[in-house]
Design a protein that fits this description.
12 helices; Bovine Mitochondrial F1-ATPase, ATP Synthase Beta Chain, Chain D, domain3; about 60% helix; mainly alpha; elongated; two-stranded antiparallel ribbon; 2 domains
Length: about 260
């Protein structure tokens, strides 16, 4: 089967033919135990010879109509600690990988924090927390924008949307066929996070002083950072973009003196 959903549907069909007592949505009552038996094959072990190894299971669930409340999806989430929610709207917008950052989660993250801090930097957890906060806030603001437009929003909320857009297009979106976007070193990934958040902090300070956000966006710095990953992949140093942010902010400050 191409997914556990199709396998579960076959299980439902067989159960019906055997005239077994159905449970929710006519799936057999033993569906959870069968799913658990599949995913519990994954894990880390030491063999009889003393060698160490692991088995990783990545299952695909295809709920009808994208309904995550149906039994197969719900029971799968009971037994796995990581969930990637593929988003149809992201795929239609040609945003790949089409993984919804608000719905997806990993319960392994806390176990991995020491590794991330060792390999990515001590500030990784703080940067991740701030970025996720901005993306969640943008998701809420976009619901308002769909109803009344973005013009009515105050500049501090417009800044959240602009910054989150840079994260979505310049960091999360990936082109596997572009030589500079297929792979990026941890050093450059961390540099991108620091640079984009530095822009947000500087822009937030300008907005707090009643300087219009429009003046900063007109410098083109948000668009530059949105394409930063390609330049970093070509060998440009991260310091170059930090300098560009400082220059753009300085020019706006100077024009408002």
């Amino acid at each position: 089967a191409d997914s556990t959903s199709r396998w579960a549907e076959a299980l439902r069909e067989i159960s019906g033919r055997l005239e077994e007592m159905p449970a929710e949505e006519s799936f057999p009552a033993y569906l959870p135990s069968r799913l658990a038996g599949f995913y519990e094959r994954a894990g880390f072990t030491e063999t009889l010879s003393g060698a160490e190894g692991s088995v990783t299971v990545i299952g695909a669930v295809s709920p009808q109509g994208g309904d995550f409340s149906e039994p197969v999806t719900q029971n799968t989430q009971r037994f796995v600690r990581c969930f990637w929610a593929l988003d149809r709207s992201l795929a239609y917008a040609r945003h790949f990988p089409s993984i919804n950052w608000n719905s997806s989660y990993s319960e392994y993250y806390n176990d991995m924090i020491p590794w991330y801090e060792e390999n990515f930097g001590k500030d990784f957890n703080d940067l991740r927390r701030r970025v996720m906060g901005l993306l969640h806030e943008e998701s809420k603001l976009m619901e308002i924008v769909k109803l009344i437009g973005s013009d009515i929003l105050p500049d501090d909320q417009k800044l959240v949307i602009e910054t989150a857009k840079v994260f979505r297009q310049g960091f999360l979106q990936q082109n596997a066929f572009h030589k500079s976007d297929t792979y990026m070193t941890p050093r450059n990934q961390m540099a991108m996070l620091r640079i984009i958040l530095h822009l947000y902090d500087e822009a937030h300070e300008l907005v707090s002083k009643n300087i219009p956000l429009r003046q900063l966006t007109e410098t083109g710095i948000f668009a530059v950072l949105g394409k930063m990953k390609f330049d970093l992949g070509e060998g440009d140093p991260p310091e170059k973009f930090m300098t560009l942010v400082d220059e753009a902010v300085a020019s706006v400050r100077k024009s408002n003196e």
